[in-house]
Q: What sequence folds into this?
């Protein structure tokens, strides 16, 4: 009996402590993303840090070098998520609209310049240069789709005439190439179509239509969903596969890092289909242990290769940081508060937030202007925000932080699309 | 019962292990290993930084999930053995 005292005490202590641990990291109700109104204190602090990084050339160069050493895509995607977050922040808080738009314009102008000077491969993995694209001339829907989405997001917040022609041209190219494909999809890499990129492109086309007050691409959007239901669903899980050849042959099965984004983008294209994908994804990929939520990269019915998209996967739990970060975005998009709470609890526990001086509030560092600009002019004047003012996640990288910021701010932009479409 | 009492477990081992984990975690934080945890997303500057980050993550888990369990278990063991000893002394009287 005495021999069992120590193991018994350990078991009892574990039974007491482990369920309580989540309470130390669980977000307050005010920290859960809301679909409208000013950003939460966490989102505001994260935005301050992201803007400060973007405005400080030295810090930004270091962060970009850190990301690009591993994956040039992260540089590009970081711009997209931060840009989308800024568009949402501009809609959430009219008092800070000029500041957010000035930063968004800087991101757009620099990204377009880099693409013009170095080509789309500046933002892709090296194998984009090695193989032959089926569709000629070579273009990557990864780059075209996200740039079109950002241009559209900017124009939705406030019209900027200089962006009208670039968006129209990009939308024309995207639609023309997608229509050419047997499964209405265009390549991101040689003979490699990604659900992630194709759904981003569909959302961009939808926004382009809404901006012009037309329904030019409605047929393509409808046909894409019908084709996807027939050809791009994983039989066992009913989830969208993540990558496939131009002719529709599957390459990778369902992956969290693609699926959550696809569900969020498809909200603008076919809401019932998007909700179905989110619900299935939540069932197959989301797990909660003792109040800590996380997402797996693959469902139990399909095991994919560990790669740059999945990131390191925690053994036994099969938890994937990239799938979990994007699941946060999808949960916010579908207003799934239980999942949001679980994922934010894990974020606070395992992503190592570094709270810097400055305190919560708007996303301008207290006592210092971040970016000064004439409203909607796009002419940002660099000031000197203190990058230590804000919130950073040491366990994440630049793109991870941008995804988190977007997850915490999304809502108003998609609502604006719906509102204008109804009009 | 008398034989069992003679071999009553001690709480000190559990307590020392729990405190040692907390101490190591504190030390690792002071040494700046926390800054290297980007290894979680596969973004690290060097193999050394990756190893430092991995060590810090393990210590973080140990200090937050394991150390409190060890310290709590030490408290439970101490309480039970104290009661058993007191009951034993009362029997002896």
A:
């Amino acid at each position: 009996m005495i021999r069992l005292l120590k193991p018994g005490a350990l078991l009892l202590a574990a039974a007491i402590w482990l369920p309580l641990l989540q309470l130390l990291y669980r977000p307050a109700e005010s920290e859960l993303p809301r679909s409208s109104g000013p950003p939460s204190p966490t989102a505001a602090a994260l935005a301050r840090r992201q803007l400060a990084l973007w405005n400080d050339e030295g810090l930004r160069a270091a962060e970009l070098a850190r990301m690009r050493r591993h994956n040039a895509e992260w540089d590009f995607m970081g711009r997209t998520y931060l840009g989308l977050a800024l568009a949402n922040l501009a809609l959430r808080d009219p008092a800070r609209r000029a500041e957010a738009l000035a930063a968004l314009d800087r991101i757009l102008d620099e990204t377009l310049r880099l693409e013009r000077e170095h080509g789309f491969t500046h933002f892709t993995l090296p194998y984009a240069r090695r193989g032959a694209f089926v569709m000629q001339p070579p273009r990557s829907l990864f780059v075209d789709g996200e740039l079109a989405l950002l241009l559209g997001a900017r124009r939705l917040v406030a019209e900027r005439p200089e962006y009208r022609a670039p968006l129209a041209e990009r939308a024309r190219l995207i639609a023309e190439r997608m229509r050419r494909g047997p499964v209405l999809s265009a390549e991101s890499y040689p003979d490699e179509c990604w659900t992630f990129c194709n759904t981003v492109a569909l959302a961009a086309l939808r926004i382009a239509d809404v901006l012009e007050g037309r329904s030019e691409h409605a047929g393509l959007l409808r046909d894409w969903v019908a084709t996807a239901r027939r050809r791009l669903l994983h039989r066992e899980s009913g989830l969208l596969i993540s990558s496939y050849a131009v002719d529709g042959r599957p390459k990778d099965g369902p992956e969290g890092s693609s699926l959550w984004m696809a569900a969020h983008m498809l909200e603008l294209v076919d809401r019932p289909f998007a909700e179905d994908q989110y619900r299935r994804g939540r069932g197959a990929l989301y797990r909660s242990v003792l109040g800590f939520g996380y997402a797996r990269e693959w469902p139990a019915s399909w095991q994919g290769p560990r790669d740059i998209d999945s990131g390191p996967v925690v053994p036994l739990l099969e938890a994937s940081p990239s799938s979990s970060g994007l699941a946060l975005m999808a949960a916010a998009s579908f207003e799934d508060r239980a999942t949001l709470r679980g994922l934010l609890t894990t974020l606070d526990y395992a992503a190592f937030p570094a709270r810097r001086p400055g305190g919560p509030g708007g996303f301008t560092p207290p006592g210092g202007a971040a970016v000064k600009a004439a409203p909607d002019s796009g002419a940002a004047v660099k000031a000197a925000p203190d990058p230590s003012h804000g919130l950073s996640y040491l366990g994440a990288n630049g793109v991870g932080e941008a995804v988190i910021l977007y997850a915490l701010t999304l809502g108003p932009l998609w609502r604006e699309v719906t509102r204008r479409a109804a009009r | 019962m008398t034989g069992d009492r003679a071999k009553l477990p001690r709480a000190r081992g559990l307590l020392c292990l729990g405190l040692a984990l907390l101490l190591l975690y504190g030390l690792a934080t002071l040494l700046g290993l926390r800054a290297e945890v980007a290894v979680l997303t596969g973004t690290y500057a060097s193999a050394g930084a990756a190893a430092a980050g991995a060590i810090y993550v393990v210590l973080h888990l140990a200090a937050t999930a394991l150390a409190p369990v060890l310290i709590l278990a030490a408290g439970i063991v101490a309480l039970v053995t104290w009661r058993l000893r007191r009951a034993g002394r009362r029997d002896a009287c």
